Amino acid sequence: MDINNPLYKNQGIHVVCTLFTVKEGEVKVLLVQRSNKPYPDKWMLPSGAVYNNEDCETAIKREMIEKTGVDGIYVEQFHTFSDPDRSPLMRMIAVGYIGIVNSENIKIKKRTEKTQNSEWFNLRDVPSELAYDHREILLEAIETIKHKIMRSTIVKSLLPKYFTLPELQKVYEAILDRQFDRRNFRKKFLQLRTN
Fold this sequence. Notes:
CATH superfamily: Nucleoside Triphosphate Pyrophosphohydrolase
Distance between the termini: 45 Å
Number of helices: 4
Oligomer: single chain
Radius of gyration: 18 Å
């Protein structure tokens, strides 16, 4: 590796979090509204650059606190976005994270140093134009979460400690955008619990 090669210059790494919740039977995603350039006033997923002295896991936790005030949530890496033109400032590779949270357990900051607002959006109400390539990242995250909930019990983290099977079924139906027969759903969920 030749560190003086000009093709290595002006590159950075972003971390981007797609945080989902369910409120009143609706799947929602957390967006923040930028207050600085580029893309002032545009909505986007909580994100930011990785510092030279931190790994991606540390960076995403820091960015979530700085941009939303959200702390102590479980997120996991799901995809890397590397289009050379995804940022107008410089080459920025984005490491995507996905999270699921019970929104009753967290409080979001409305305004921070770099954001002027934050809001939970119903998936069908997300603005058509998001900053950077965040619409593409959101769509990829939605597909990932759909696959994940069919193979695991991760969706339980959206619910309070005690919940009913009909409440759980409602969450699955909201995320997958389809109806389940009550008996079949019960059988499917019990099967997931034993795997």
